[in-house]
Write a structure and sequence with these properties.
The chain has 467 residues and is of the alpha+beta class. It has eight helices and 21 strands. Helix 1 runs antiparallel to helix 3 and helix 5 runs antiparallel to helix 8. The longest helix has 109 residues.
Length: 467
Amino acid sequence: MKMAAASEELTNEAVCSICLDYFYEPVLTDCGHNFCRACITEFWNRSEGKVFCPNCRAEFEQKVLRPNRQLANLVNSIRKLSLVIRGKPAEEQLCKEHEEKLKLFCEDDLKPICVVCDRSLQHRYHRVLPVGEVVKRYKKQLEQSRDYLKKQMESILIAQAEGESKIYKINADTETERQKIISKFDQLQHSLNREKEKLLQNLDRDRTLNLETVNDHLAHLAQQTCTIFSAIEEINERLKLQEAAFLTDIKKTLDRCNIMIQIPAVEVNSLKKNEADQPMKYVSLWKQLLKFMRPEPAPLTLDPKTAHCNLYISQDLTVVNWGDVLQNCPNNSERFDYWPCVLSSQGFSSGRHYWEVSVGDSSGWYMGAARQSVERKGWTILTAENGCWTLGWSSGEYMAGIVRLPLREKLTRVGLYLDYEEGELSFYNVDNMSQIHTYKDSFTEKMFPFFRMWSSDSEIKICHSTS
């Protein structure tokens, strides 16, 4: 028994953790674990991202494998030892009670017995079979269990590899987005600092010019003060003289004292107080900021060829209203003939695009984007599954397709952002640019801005940059 236990321990050391069988061409990884060369190679080929050990999860830069010839020799020895133990003569495996060979197997008690046991009262009514037959059956059952467990192990290893790959991708994607955010805000900060320096320079320039003007004025006043002071001194000196001396050259003194003083008004450019609050000072800066915070609305126009005959479109092709009178419209293939819908003349098959729509106090409307092949004839449900991604207001509820949205704020102007490559269509409340709803799908056709009227008092207007 001790020898059998020792044999089992040795056998466990000679088994690959991937295939659960004896090592075949064992190789050693950098972390010190052994695997069959074919097993670890197949495992790495199925894995994505970094190479790692299935046992300890240690990651490696390269697929480095070193043959373990010492282990290969040991496995061969263990194989032989196992065969010897399993191949011992049957007479050594005797019944403890009768010392007879264990040639039978009792399926009721699930243990091998001898022929004497078979005739005893204990096993007389039990189902007893020859050991050889039972061994074959259980060997087959165990082999099936081993194969099943191997597949389960492979599934777990694949799932683990996929999980590791997802962790790597999450970290990589997060770092990429982090760098994008840092870069964009660095640009914004640079623009803000540049505008700040410009305003401060303008303020210092105005101050310098104003100070020069006032200083020149003060210098002129100082010069006039000196002239007046000299005249006053001369008058005082002449007033001290006797009559004859007083009148001598009196005319010159009178002429010098006849000074016409003029104090010119000094005009300075008043400092532009609260210049930082003047919106027009930031037109160029706002244009830069809008690229990051809110794109310029695309100059879309409505396509009359697609409009339902009850829809009336303005002359500039930006406003659509419901009309009770059915117009006499050509029944062309582009036109909606059941639902009161209309498309934009412009469609998008790549890139990122933004447009804004005003709905005012309309009591019912839908808007969004539709693929070029959307059904336009007859009754159909205009949902994402049928190529129409929409946000709507009807019967006092906001809807994303046919799904109710828990939105309480009143929408009067909606922004729509389409990222074709990412397969995203988002809706925003333009008043505060809060996100309302986002569709994530795969766009394979040209996408057209879509509008649908819901009631006779509805009006939809496409907003341009000056709207």
